[in-house]
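Notes, Module 5: Reading structure tokens.

Key idea: the token line is not a picture. It is a compressed description, and you learn to read it the same way you learned to read a sequence, by spotting repeated patterns. We will look at two proteins. The first is printed below with its tokens.
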Amino acid sequence: MVDKQWKEECAIVGVFNCDEAALITYYSLFAMQHRGQEASGISVSNGHNITTLKSQGLVTDVFTKAKLEKLKGLNAVGHNRYATAGADSNGDCQPIFARYGLGEISVVHNGNLTNASKIRCDLTQKGAIFQSNLDTEVIIHLIARSTNSFLTPRIMDAVREIEGAFSLVFLSRSKMFVVRDRFGLRPLSLGEIFNKDGTKGYIVASETCAFDLVGAKFIRDIEPGELIVFEKNNMNETKIISVKLFEERQKPCVFEYIYFSRPDSVVFGKSVYMVRKNLGKQLAIEHSVEADIVMPVPDSGLAAAIGYSKQSKIPFELGLIRNHYVGRTFIEPTQELRELKVKLKLNPIREIIENKRVIVIDDSLVRGTTSKAIVKLLKNAGAKEIYLLISAPPTISPCYYGVDTPSKSELISANKSIEEVRSFINVDYLGFLSLDGLKQALDSEHYSYCQACFDGKYLHEVIESSEDIKGE
């Protein structure tokens, strides 16, 4: 749903042994702009030192042709940020760059560390000085404080101290390190890309849509708990070392399928588009409603609405048109201004909606205020009856793994019954996908997902205070 107050996770990319590494990183970040729109940054290594450029804004705002030309080197990391907490400053942009005992390092992070506050407090008491509000910075401090003579074991020790969700890419002057948490909560894929002279380079990215844009070939997902080291051997060929840091306990985030990822990406081994269609089909099985048309709330409800229409045999229509050129609007304190915000972004087609029984498919329902405004739009356009169906279970718990969700007190489904929510939104019928239906749609009999936002079962002990949650 448009501006439903889910804030997307961030996008990360790493490029090794590639001509024009900065440009490949730029285009990869552009492909994943949907995952973070508040800041962007790139670090590039030329083998001797690391150059970093980052700022608030979209990828195309931060990087001009002239700026990219200054980022020389064959290895790079990049990041799109969607802040979940902390000040809106360049200090809170990534990559995080530091000079330390072994030289220079830069890191990008997608996820959220559940024990970051404790580690930060311990480090501060020992004299550490932090330059940002990012929990990622604690990882840099852990690496810098290690007494080991080599970077690889320093990273291994640091990663073993942190808890929560993390996909990380580290860039040193000559190597690149990639690591994923033991649950594989945040996505990260590996691809190969060939240079003009035929030599092979490598790329890692949060979503495979980045590979499609830069012409890279998907190899595989980085495994949960896996550390991969990219370096050059004496023959100047890329050497790849893989180490298993943790026992694998796969629990990837189910919301990647429901809302966050681009539909043309393959995430956790499945096509996002096909999963969303299956969610819609399962929704039709669970909620059979007599209606004239099925329509999505664009854009993330689109595939689910197609699936619902196919299963139910009810015609699919684009009854709401989204204005893609409206920037972010502030959360306004009055219902009137919230409704205006929705009208800026969505406009109904009266000829399709008028005097129709309309099924509206959306991917999730958070506070309910935006849904209420959309329903009012449709009623003003002449809809006779409105049935709102959600292609996910009710959201009853906040996320502590890198998604900025409202507190439990603000989640409408955590505090009201389905009938009370229906009455608040003012629809004729409200239905959610069941937890069993979600499992069926994912075909996950032998594969388990983190769905804490739906069932409240967290993978780690969490501190339920917004002051302690500063995700990337």
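Here is the second protein, with the sequence above and the tokens below, as before.
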Amino acid sequence: MAIRNVREIGDDILKKTCKPVKEMNARTQELIEDMFETMYATNGCGLAAPQVGILKRIVVIDVDDGNQYVLINPQILETKDSQSGYEGCLSVPGKRGIVTRPNYVKVKALDENLQEYILEGTELLARAICHECDHLDGKLYVDLVEGELEDVTEDLEAE
């Protein structure tokens, strides 16, 4: 496993649409492991493959609910209600902004064994699913921010 470099806003790869994963192989499995390691090393709760320079439809999420989620080729099936709150991104370091997202999300994806499953999430998990799936289509949260981006300070990080 290895910590990979996180691509930052301005890198063209973050604006590209990712390709579906067709098969699981050693390189893809290693990518998933590296994505988790990179996410934890950078204190994130989600990471999408294009953020580490790979144009594959893979997302990893860990929102401290006791689960690690791998979503391969995710498709959002249903959303409802809404929530507004601060959002940040490993690809936009030192910034945050208010974004409105669904408060409930139902997504269909493949797991690391390419077995299809349905994941339902609310609150932070719903926000993370939407945020990371946007990355797969070349979208960044900064395009959805209501108002201005704010600098993240030490005080805010302790919240």
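Summary for the second protein:
- The longest strand covers residues 69-80.
- DSSP finds three helices and eight strands in the chain.
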